[in-house]
Amino acid sequence: MDISERLAADETSRTVDTEQNDADVVALRDAILDKLTYHVGKRRAVATERDWLIATAVAIRDLIVDRWVSSTEATYQQGAKRVYYLSLEFLIGRLLFDNLNNMNMIETMRAALAGLDVDLDKLRALEPDAALGNGGLGRLAACFMESMATLDIPAHGYGIRYEHGLFRQVVKNGWQHEYPEDWLAMGNPWEFHRPEVSYNIGFGGSIEAVPISEAAVRHVWHPAETVEAVGYDTPVVGWRGRRVNTLRLWSARSADPLRLDAFNHGDHAGALAEQVRAESITKVLYPSDATAAGQELRLRQEYFFVSASLQDLVRRHIRAFGHISSLPDKTAIQLNDTHPAIAVAELMRILLDVHQIPWEEAWRMTQATFSYTNHTLLPEALEVWPVPLMERLLPRHMQIIYLINALHLGKVRLEYPSDDRLLSSVSMIDEQQGRRVRMSHLAFLGSHRVNGVSALHTGLMRETVFRDLHNLFPERIVNVTNGIAFRRWLFEANPRLTRLLTDTVGPKVLEDENALTALRPLASDRAFQKRFAACRYVNKLALADLIRRELEIRVDPNALFDVHIKRIHEYKRQLLNILEAIALYNAIRARPMDDWAPRVKIFAGKAAASYYQAKLVIKLIHDVAKVVNNDPTVRNILKIVFLPNYSVSLAEMVIPASDVSEQISTAGMEASGTGNMKFALNGALTVGTLDGANVEIAERVGMENIHIFGLTADKVAARRQRGLDAGDLIAASPALSEVLDSVQAGVFSPDEPDRYRGLVDSLRYHDYFLVCADFDHYFATQRHIADIWRRPEEWWQSAILNTANVGWFSSDRSIRDYATDVWDVPAYQASA
């Protein structure tokens, strides 16, 4: 074929593609109008933006359902092994663009809606965030679900359909206030209610031992209370729609919603008491456990969703394979952190009491089926439940836990007959705190694999919280470093950068995360640097506009955007960041003629409702911002911003606009982090400790392209051993001493001069999170960052190399590791 023939063929191909695209747009427009009429019940002339959102979502959902049904049928036909991901959180966020992106339909939908005079971006902003998680744990679960669908792994996610999810954060006069989050107020067009999928969940009651032979009895649990779990299904679309899996969330309802006798006798409120008690289980994510009632509600939540999920998957298994005995061969259940750990005892109950499997075989099956991901070394996050609460609420499960523990300790005692310390350490019952059940030990013993979520974290697990269990079972702990869904956190969140990458590297970058390495030779190319920087600048303009509209604060998009967005917690050290901001403020005022690099410090995150110290840090950030932002001597060199009500959607806007990523947790306390990966993927430079996945990010981007400071995990442990009084450190640091004196004296809180006295005293005399120990190094690192910002070629080379070298942190890679090392299931491999 000569060149003229090739050109003619290309033109014919383009014409065919154009005609097909036009036909797709028309068909999609017709489908939306059909849904507007027959699903929403509105005419085009009177439709609101919300009506258009619902019609659009349902039109997309119809297209997804076809692939969903075919994916499910293929799984049954192939007899494939299924993965079940149990998580108390699924922070899925908005789904409109997520589904359009994965179905490769964004531009087609944009054109279809434009023909109806509807703006797709306005609909995107109108969709509520599904706030079914608190932070990284829930967002990781959402990324993993998307990657399992992308990699063609048959999978179900199981969790709770919280009516209100995490609270809505409102900041008044600098203080956080919590209000119910109402993501379901206008309905959820993505989900399918499954009223026929319901299971009875028991609480309390008694156990009856029924003889079944001279030597054996069957235990029958007679619950005192029964709650119904009803399923709601959301399809989870993989990349290019290759596969659609299911996220099934459970809602609680009373088995007897209305006591008619009480109602007819005039006790209208009392007649609904059982309904209110049952439905409280799925009202709110993480109800405060500061009271005994709150603690009980949390345990009820965890058992409720675990029991419903196990009953559901066992039913599905028997329908597909005929008998429960093959469960470990066809089922892999992943426990996402300690919250679902009661699943070990629940599966044992189902095998023993419902299917009459002998104990030894039931325990073998349970261990072969479960695996457990540990996400934290913090003692307060390694759940323990008081034995009296467990015995009252879950009496049969407590029997099973006692027997698992007795058999386990019996084996340990045979091998280590005189080691009482070891027995106490590996027991599932902690006798030191008023007899509590260690749920992490239950999850460890009931699983065949236990994984950490970064190389550093996994090593620390082996050395600290699970040291003795690891010595008993040295092959059980493995590492699977966390990852993020590039489809969400690059292609969808940063379309400008994505277009630049596809123009430069080619479309293969959309299929294979490792293709990003092709950017490395371009890192020093000035023309490419300018295009990369231009993408960032447009994103910063959008974020600056959001800050102006929401907070009435004007920030310069040419300034360095220094971003710290994550859950507010002492170990994440937002306090260190704001203290450094005060030190910088003092330095600017002392040396106003120096060449300061303009900087905008951006914070966002929620503090737990009962976490006073974290709330006080939020108040301090606002108090400092009020002083700094209104001081004319600073001349806009420094601005401080706190964006309220942090969410997935807000993160999608902030991260692509960020120049600096703050990952400054006390070393040894952040298990992995995934925000660090999202920022680096979008070209932000990390300022961080050698903690969590920062260690592995540094290995891949190069130490010259990440800015590490502070004590290492082993030095943190050594410092704590020596004592937590920071008087010597403060005395040796004039900058820190000045900052703490000003905070304690009420410079930033003239309305209440003693507001931060306790906070400063805790730093002086009990600096557990090593804020003072790391302050000087952190301050110096920030000044080094400012120096690089003044050298654009060096800055953008480093930024590009971050993007180029973090392909390994894809959640696809994480899921392939799980598939190979934990679940024993095949995973689709993207073409190189």
From TrEMBL:
One of its GO terms (molecular function) is pyridoxal phosphate binding. Gene3D superfamilies: Glycogen Phosphorylase B. PANTHER family: GLYCOGEN PHOSPHORYLASE, GLYCOGEN PHOSPHORYLASE, LIVER FORM. SUPFAM superfamilies: UDP-Glycosyltransferase/glycogen phosphorylase. This is Alpha-1,4 glucan phosphorylase. It comes from Rhodopila globiformis. It catalyses: [(1->4)-alpha-D-glucosyl](n) + phosphate = [(1->4)-alpha-D-glucosyl](n-1) + alpha-D-glucose 1-phosphate. Keywords: Allosteric enzyme, Carbohydrate metabolism, Cytoplasm, Glycosyltransferase, Pyridoxal phosphate, Transferase. Belongs to the glycogen phosphorylase family. Its cofactor is pyridoxal 5'-phosphate. Allosteric enzyme that catalyzes the rate-limiting step in glycogen catabolism, the phosphorolytic cleavage of glycogen to produce glucose-1-phosphate, and plays a central role in maintaining cellular and organismal glucose homeostasis. Phosphorylase is an important allosteric enzyme in carbohydrate metabolism. Enzymes from different sources differ in their regulatory mechanisms and in their natural substrates. However, all known phosphorylases share catalytic and structural properties.
